[in-house]
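> example.struct
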């Protein structure tokens, strides 16, 4: 007999009470409180952020945090930012923009 082919008789179903099963107790983790400024830094360090930075050969690049290679290289910073925003929104992460000298300009 198949697993779903068994059907109980109405009389039999009323006569036999269904066994009670215990539900396991699951402890939920308490969220830790962090400052909002630390959140974006944490996302950037955890490998979730995308960086718009100057490329060593000229132009601009989009890299994922902690990556060796750039995802894509662009001629202008605006093009690189638009691409990074699109990728970050698809992945649910943030974009970190850098200036030409490598300093962080803005986190989004």
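> example.seq
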């Amino acid at each position: 007999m198949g697993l779903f082919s068994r059907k109980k008789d109405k009389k039999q179903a009323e006569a036999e009470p269904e066994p009670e099963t215990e539900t396991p107790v699951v402890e939920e983790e308490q969220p830790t409180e962090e400052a909002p400024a630390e959140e974006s830094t944490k996302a950037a360090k955890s490998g979730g952020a995308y960086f718009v930075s100057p490329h060593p050969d000229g132009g601009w690049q989009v890299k994922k945090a902690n990556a060796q290679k750039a995802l894509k290289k662009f001629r202008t910073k605006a093009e690189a930012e638009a691409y990074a925003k699109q990728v970050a929104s698809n992945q649910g992460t943030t974009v970190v923009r850098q200036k030409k000298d490598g300093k962080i300009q803005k986190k989004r």
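> remarks
The chain has a mean pLDDT of 75.
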